[in-house]
Amino acid sequence: MSSEQALTTRAADFSAWYNDVVMRAELADYSPVRGCMVIRPRGYRIWELMQQALDGLFKATGHENAYFPLFIPQSFLAKEAEHVKGFAPQTAVVTHGGGKLLDEPLVVRPTSETIIYAMFAKWIQSYRDLPVLLNQWANIVRWELRTRLFLRTTEFLWQEGHTAHATADEAEREARLILGLYRRFAEEWMAMPVLTGVKTDSEKFAGAVRTYAIEALMQDNKALQAGTSHNLGQNFAKAFDVKYQTTAGDTEYVWSTSWGVSTRLIGGLVMTHSDDNGLICPPRLAPLQVIVVPIWKSDTDRQGVLEAAQRARQSLVDAGISAQVDHRDAVKPGAKYYHWEARGVPVRLEIGPRDVAQGQAVLARRVGGKAAVPLAGLPAAVHEAMDEVQAALLEAARARREANSIRNVKGREELKAFLDGAGGFAYAGYCGDAACETAVKEETKATIRLLPDEEFRSAPAPRTCVWCGRPAATEAVWAKAY
């Protein structure tokens, strides 16, 4: 879209608004290959910052990075029945290479469990080899029929962790540990509040014993599954014969986990915070944290203002804050404000001749508010402003989620009215019967996003199933989702 064209508003068309924001902020563009996207430098910088934060969390808990092939022998997927059934419709298959028909077709990586466990079978012999705690940063191909930039594309980037353990308890602790790391990242870096809990059997990962997830609520009141952590039990170990000798000298299959988040998080960031003026980016993940806009009316003022702007920028860079000066001559200050506002820069510094004389700058926040700050000690003032913006974005998103949630839904009519209306998170009793889960999905297009962890459950707990009226076995959170 052109830089002059107004963004579609959220109220008019949320989907069009989302695409407009992504394009105007120069995060991604459509590829000549159907269903694929080009991640532009600003979007890739967000991904780099996400990678750095997550990589630090993983390594601090003992995980190491490795890399496995893009191509997987087709027979590998068939070894785990649930797995092949779950991914077969989405696979891309290579049948020819080097101008010849391959002896065995190769699947382009839809996920890496099968090839990784084939390697685990070679590497793991004894309890001394455990645990194995690996992660890889990679691209993934899943043949999607309906695609949207970042949210669902045929090829996307992600990290996938894969671990092997000596006991079931260790694997369960690992799956829960990673879930906690994902929540911490979502809330502390993305300023995106999430629910944590376990998926129902119909929603869990193909081949898993249990799938845990973080779920966030977007501004259109649809849920976004932002990360998953799977306890795979011994399913893949048995399929690929991954055994180890115990301390007692017996032979046992390993217990394993897998977990991942993807560039879908960038879409979640956009939909959680942005407004009708464009991208709003939490400072901790902003490709550019500060734009300095020098303002002058005459050539006599120009040099002094530009020099002050460059000194301000350098002081910020020296303090570890990313900053640029917009010194374009042919663009008016108001147009510059609009340009950087649409690209989500959290802090703008305005410096004019009077500011230079008074040793100050005007600090404007992307989320609102302007105040004069001294140029002496500028980095401290900017750090404080960014910390406040980061905290305010999280609190605003959490308040919006709670305002668009309903608890203790009385029955199916109230549930249907809520989900067919404005929507949001609906907390209600669930009997545990998959037939009720399916019926709700067929009538409302909503799914059980998760069975929430204790922290998020209602008090008092619901006593009856919202759909059939039988005694509730648990509480579930329903919502329409991406």
Q: Could you walk me through the main structural features you see in this protein, from its secondary elements to its overall organization?
A:
The protein has 482 residues and is of the alpha+beta class. Helix content is 36%, strand content 27%. The strands form 5 sheets. An 11-stranded mixed sheet has the order 3-7-8-14-11-10-9-22-23-21-20, sandwiched between helices. Strands 16-15-17-18-19 form a 5-stranded mixed sheet, with helices on both faces. A 3-stranded antiparallel sheet has the order 4-6-5. β10 and β11 form a beta hairpin. α2 crosses α6. The longest helix has 26 residues. The mean pLDDT is 96.
Task: Summarize this structure briefly.
The chain has 14 helices and 23 strands. It has 482 residues and is α+β, with helices and mostly antiparallel strands.
